[in-house]
Every structure is written in structure tokens, then in C-alpha cells.
Amino acid sequence: MAIHASAPPHTAPLVLPRRLRIPRPLVPTLSLAAGLLLWQVAGSVFRLDWLPPLSRVVADIGTMWAQGQLQPALSESVVNLVIGFVIAAVAGVTLGTLMSLFQKVAFALQPYVNAFLLAPSIVMAPVFFIFFGLSRATPIAVIVLYAVLFIAVNTQTALKTVDTQLVEMARSAGASRWQIYRFVIVPASLPLTMAGLRLGMGRCVKGMINGELFIAVVGLGRLDSSFAGAFDATGILAIMLIVVVVAVVATSAVQIVDRRLNSWLYREG
Amino acid sequence: MAIEQEPGIRIEGLSKRFFRPAADGSGTEMLHVLDRIELEVRPHEFMSLIGPSGCGKTTLLRMIAGLARADEGSLRIGSEAITGPGPERAMVFQDFALLPWASVLDNVAFGLKLRRVRRTEREATALDLIRAVGLEGFEKALPRQLSGGMQQRVGLARALAMDPRFLLLDEPFGALDEISRRVMQDELIRIWESDKKTAVFVTHSVDEAVFLSDRIVIMSSRPGRIADIVEVGLPRPRTRDMEQDRIFIEIRARIWQALGL
């Protein structure tokens, strides 16, 4: 393994004076802590209606939890998120695989794929509402639409960029078409596919909250719209914090699967 | 090992053309890569193909491997035409072509896994070959943890694990630095001389070809033709002091002459 003795100076990160140097892994945590502290201080000093201090928002979450207001909304949202993500992942990976297998078809479908990728998926929410009504299927459909093509395009790229030399090597060693898929193309494309799924999960969270805000009768979205109606900034920020936590936990879950499936990438050395 | 009647490879009237977009943008241009090649690879010989870039030597090797098709002419092993890859042929690639997610052991056992050889059996074979190429202790390492020379040892062990009759090597040391290259030449010739599988070796290096080969096929550039075939009359086992040998020096001079340089 070639180890570069030193990075060229112009690409080196900002070098702090020695006494200010902070261990790298701590930097994001410290920056987050500083932001939260700033929020707390600004909130308690300026006493603005739209900026309650962090402590009050956290206390609000506690109250909502104690009153049993939060749990049903949260579980409703999270269940929708999980179902929506699973559907989007399975459909997206399947679609992406088909698009890589049948390139002419994929090429013909490209304008549609692009149109749906670029248009804000939420515009489809009323259509789903007409279709599925007030059932759980409406927010789930929104979640799926937010992520499915995104995951599909990532999977397609992952499969298309597999090193052709590896395929050639397997072919020369007598691999069948299926074996080439199973032993070369799938493992080789897995890191990019998983990256697509991780980002896809982020989009699912957006779909979750946007769908619920639109329908406004379920989950965290309903709570959020009711707080918005009452100009309750504390409640809105509380929901925002919860959504952020849900997003972080959900993406970490995908990341754990990724680290397991692609463990060779994360091995040291 | 069956000695008598073991077939070599017969290549007759082999031509290959490629089409590619013309450099000046005026439609496509045709590249005549190989032009009516006649060649016989004898059983148990070490044959090198040498020539300038674009002379079609790699294309010829890929056709022997069954990875590319001829436009005209035929390639046969004995009486059987080559129509695709086969278990009697194994290839070593210039850029190693190792599976980056698989350990050295799994990479070496890969061909056997494709043949559905049982795990314990294929790992035993792989371990033998890992030892033979001097990688003992690196069984669990990933390719990226190895140097180029070590990676190509894995590539060589993988090909040998399939126990082929023909070893096809496509500039296997072309990506290595000169020192690793020399070490790998010694290693290859030591392993090759122990059982003399018929070898076809593509190279850019004249000295490498002379040191390793029984015969050297010199090719000329587009259309690729055979310019000369040189028998290397050096005894085996080959040793480095033979590089000072008069025969070695004469053959080297003759190859450069055939290459027109």
C-alpha cells in the first residue's frame, strides 16, 4: 500500500495554532453543541415568539410525551416511513436493475424518469389522496414516490459502472451469466447501491413529513399543522427536532446494514 | 501427465477488424488489427508475443482465451475450435483483475468456486498455490493491502488453481515497477519450469521475452502480422547469468531488428 508521506500543502485543511487543535472526531460534536448553546442563549436573551430557547422546546417534547400526545403520532409516522422505505427500496433496486439490463428501454424511459426525479413529488399527493383516500396508503405512496426513482437511478449507475475487467476475468474463468451476476456484478455494485439507499432514506423522511403535512390528519405532520394553526413556535420546533432525530436514526440504520454488507470497504488497511 | 498426442493451439488465417469513430469525425474508420495470422503454439512451450502497441497481440491472446471472436480464420485446440472460454485455458491479466472485496484465499479459489468445487477442497487447493507463489500468511488480506507484485502473485495463483493446460498471460508484469517485475519474472519461470504448462505470454519487453520464452513471435503494427519467429536456444532452468550469454545478446539484437528499431 502506498502511503503518501505528506499531503501537498495547498490541499491541507485550515491549520489551527497548536494550542487550539481539537481531535478530529470531536469537531462535528463540538460544532453541534455550540449551535445548540447559541440557540439556548439567543432564545432566552431575545425572548422572541418565533425563537423559544432550546430548553423550552425540549420541555415541550417532555410534556407531549407525558400527555401521550406524541407517541401515537410518532409511531404512525415511523411505521409509514419503514413501510414506504421498504417498498421504495425493493421497487427502486428492481427498477434500476431492469434499467441496466435493458438499456434501450431505459433510454426510452429516460425523459419520464427525469421528469419524476426533478418535479417535486409532493404535487402527486392530491392524486394519491383521490386514489387512496384517508388511509395509511396515501402518506406511504408519497414516501415511495419521493425515493423510488432516486434509488433506481443510483442502482442503475452502480450496475453500469462495474469494472468490466472483473466481468471479463469471470468470463474467462468460465462463469455463467448468472454467476457473473451473483459473484461479480452484485458485490461490485453494492457500495454505490447502498449509498443510494442511504440517501433514499433521507428522501423518504422528507416524503413522510411532506405527505403528512399535506394530508394533515396523521402522524407528526398532523401535530405540526395543528401547532402551525395555533402559531405555536415551540411545538413546531419540537416536531422539527423529532423529525431530525428520526432521520438520523433511520439513515444510521441503513448505514449499519451498509457496513455489514460492504465490510471489506471499512476494514482498515 | 499425458505426453503423447497432447494438442497445442493451431491458428489459421486469422483476421480481425475493429471499427471506431474516425479521429477527424468523418464517420467510422476501420482498423485492421490482425491480418491472416498463421501460428502454432506447441504443447509445453513458453511462447511470447511481442510487438509495438496496437499490433494486435492482446487481441490475439483474447481470441485464444475465447473472449473475442475472429472475423476470418480459425483457432483450434487439437480438432476442437475455440468458441469461448474453456476450463483448459486460464488467463492472467495486466491489471490483476482481483475481486477487491474478496480475500487472497477467496480470489485464488474463485475459478474453482465457479466450477462448484466444494469449499474445503477448493480452499486446500488455493492454500497450496498461495504457498507456491510465496504469499503464505496473506490468505486473509484484501487485494488493496498488497503491493502490485503481490497482487499479481494472486492473479497467477488464481489461474494455476484452475489447473489449466494453457496459461494465457496478458502483459502480466506491465503494471509493475522494474524491480518487482524482475522478481516476478524469476518467480514465474520457477513455477512454470516445474510443470511446463503451455504458456502464451504477451509482453512489451524484449529482455523479458528472451529470458522467459522458448519461442518469441514478433508482430508488426497494423495490420498486425507476424514479422518473425525466434527460437530461444537457451537451456532450462533459466538463470539470470544467461543474460550475459552470447545467445541471449544475439536474440535480443535479432528481435530489435525484426521490430525495425
Q: How do the strands and helices of this protein lay out in sequence?
A:
The complex is a heterodimer of chains A (269) and B (261).
Chain A: H1 26-46, H2 54-66, H3 70-101, H4 103-118, H5 125-132, H6 137-160, H7 164-172, H8 177-215, H9 219-229, H10 233-261, H11 263-266
Helix pairs in contact in A: 2-10, 3-4, 3-6, 3-8, 3-9, 5-6, 6-8, 7-8, 8-9, 8-10, 9-10
Chain B: E1 9-21, E2 28-41, E3 46-50, H1 57-65, E4 72-77, E5 80-81, E6 89-92, H2 104-108, H3 110-114, H4 119-132, H5 148-161, E7 166-170, H6 178-195, E8 198-203, H7 206-212, E9 215-220, E10 225-231, H8 246-258
Parallel strand pairs in B: 3-8, 3-9, 6-7, 7-8
Antiparallel strand pairs in B: 1-2, 1-4, 4-5, 9-10
Helix pairs in contact in B: 4-5, 5-6, 7-8
Second rung of CATH, namely the architecture of the largest domain in chain B? 3-Layer(aba) Sandwich
Q: Sketch the major β-sheet of chain A.
A: none
CATH superfamily placement of the largest domain in chain B: P-loop containing nucleotide triphosphate hydrolases
By secondary-structure content and strand pairing, the structural class of chain A works out as mainly alpha
